[in-house]
Design goal:
With about 450 residues, the protein is of the alpha/beta class. The chain folds into 3 domains: about 30 residues, no CATH class; about 110 residues, Aspartate Aminotransferase, domain 1 (Alpha-Beta Complex); about 260 residues, Aspartate Aminotransferase, domain 2, CATH 3.40.640. Helices cover about 35% and strands about 15% of the residues. The chain has 14 helices and 15 strands. Helix 4 packs antiparallel against helix 12, helix 6 runs parallel beside helix 12 and helix 7 packs across helix 8.
């Protein structure tokens, strides 16, 4: 018989099949349609020792080049920022690592305090009263916000801008499909990228649960009509939802200050590294109104004192998951698997402070402004495509119909530069356009190098 701690030996498989009353593996998987089953054996190499497996995997990984080893201008929802060494050191302490998802939370006061601090700083940053801890990522936060709007208003339509990140839109539509919410896209001004207010007002009515904008937008520009959009939504009884890159709030006022009822966003740039596939950190905040607070997904940590008032303690004051309350009354199945990322964000924000965050945001925006200026000097290129203020991301358009963004990016890669994300598949109407990102990691020399390489690829016409 095989080793008992390896659960896939023939003897153990046969024993498990007997226990559940299945004659063979195929009978166990009878519910899986035959047309989607693999009809051949897996193409696996022969059995290897641990050392051989390690060498094999290292050889595969060596084919990749991480962004830390080349100049990269990729953004689009995950942004490269400097993560100070002390953040990684602190979150790897066993007190945080072993209690990152405390199901008996009152026994882990340190983790609860860290999450309380995270919530407090996020609420202050976005200009709202309450923030939870926490969500999976920006996309799931948006999905939860749409469902929350529907529950609060008892309406079935959710409005989003056409210039939304398509991955977030896809997740939103998946969330909306269950309860049958209608997701409606509203167009934009083709010169400025701003939301088409006339079309928005035409769509607004008694069936609209919420209106959503991204600020900065997915394409990097700022939506300057926030107050007007909020007023239009509230006039018809809809809720106003805003998605943010939190770093930008070091420069710009929080969405709560221009009428947002709910704010969502991506917390990855707050002390969390760029990783392939995550984890990310979903931001979710709302106004302190009973109709909203009671519908908040996830968990909410609160602070209290002992009866004599001498000691402070932390506890979970709201937990709307199906594991904690009757399933039919649960607002969400979102749990706390991003809590360690939230602790990283709390340490990051506390370390920077208001002035540090302002300086960081200013540097990111300054780099983007410099990059747009440099790239605009190259004949055949335009940056940005929209006439609007931008934060740290912007669009770059190639007007030469014989040159594609894909070709330019391939040329850049040969020069050790990762260019911007092509938008051809997501927004074909924008032509040969890419989305580029700058952060504090980019120096003026890095941007000059990008401009020089692009000028060379376009024949040195700049």
């Amino acid at each position: 018989m095989g080793y008992p701690y390896i659960p896939n030996t023939r003897e153990i498989r046969e024993q498990m099949l007997r226990e559940i009353g299945a004659a063979n593996i195929n009978e166990l998987f009878a519910d899986i349609p035959s047309q989607i089953r693999l009809k051949r054996k897996l193409k696996l190499p022969p059995a290897m020792s641990e050392l051989e497996v390690k060498r094999h995997v290292q050889a595969i990984l060596a084919k990749n080049t991480p962004f830390t080893q080349m100049l990269s201008f990729l953004g689009g929802g995950v942004w490269p920022h400097h993560v100070p060494a002390h953040i990684r050191s602190l979150v790897q302490r066993s007190e945080f690592l072993t209690s990152y998802t405390p199901y008996q939370p009152e026994t882990s006061q340190g983790m609860l305090q860290a999450l309380f601090e995270y919530q407090s700083m996020i609420a202050e940053l976005v200009g709202l009263d309450v923030a939870n801890s926490s969500m999976y990522d920006w996309a799931t936060s948006l999905g939860e916000a749409a469902l929350m709007c529907a529950r609060v208003t008892r309406r079935q339509k959710f409005i989003v801008p056409k210039l939304i990140a398509k991955d977030r839109l896809s997740v939103l539509r998946n969330y909306a499909s269950g309860p049958g919410l209608e997701v409606v896209e509203v167009g934009y001004n083709h010169r400025t990228g701003q939301l088409d207010l006339k079309q928005l007002r035409a769509e607004l009515g008694g069936d609209v649960a919420g209106v959503y904008i991204e600020n900065p937008s997915y394409l990097g520009f700022l939506e300057t009509q926030g107050d007007e959009i909020a007023a239009a939504a509230h006039k018809t009884g809809a809720l106003f939802v805003v998605g943010v890159n939190p770093i930008s709030l070091g420069l710009f006022k929080g969405p709560g200050e221009y009428g947002a009822d709910i704010v969502v966003g991506e917390g990855q740039p707050l002390g969390n590294p760029v990783s392939f596939g995550g984890p990310s950190l979903g931001i979710f905040a709302c106004r302190d109104e009973s109709k909203l607070l009671r519908q908040l997904p996830g968990r909410l940590i609160g602070a209290t004192t002992t009866l004599d008032g001498k000691a402070r303690g932390y506890c979970m004051v709201l937990q709307t998951r199906e594991q904690h309350i009757r399933r039919e009354r649960a607002t969400s199945s979102i749990c706390t698997n991003e809590a360690l990322c939230a602790v990283s964000a709390a340490i990051y924000l506390a370390s920077l402070g208001p002035r540090g965050l302002h300086d960081l945001a200013e540097l990111c925006a300054s780099n983007a402004s410099y990059a747009m200026k440099k790239l605009n000097m190259i004949k055949g290129l335009r940056a940005p495509i929209f006439d609007a203020p931008h934060f740290n991301e912007f669009t770059l358009t190639c007007d030469d119909t014989h040159v594609s963004i894909q070709k330019l990016n391939a040329g850049l890669l040969k020069r050790g530069i990762q260019g911007g994300k092509s938008l051809r598949a997501e927004f074909p109407e924008l032509g040969e356009t890419a989305l580029l990102c700058t952060t504090e990691l980019h120096s003026r020399e890095d941007i000059d190098r990008l401009a020089s390489a692009l000028n060379e690829l376009l024949g040195g016409k700049g």
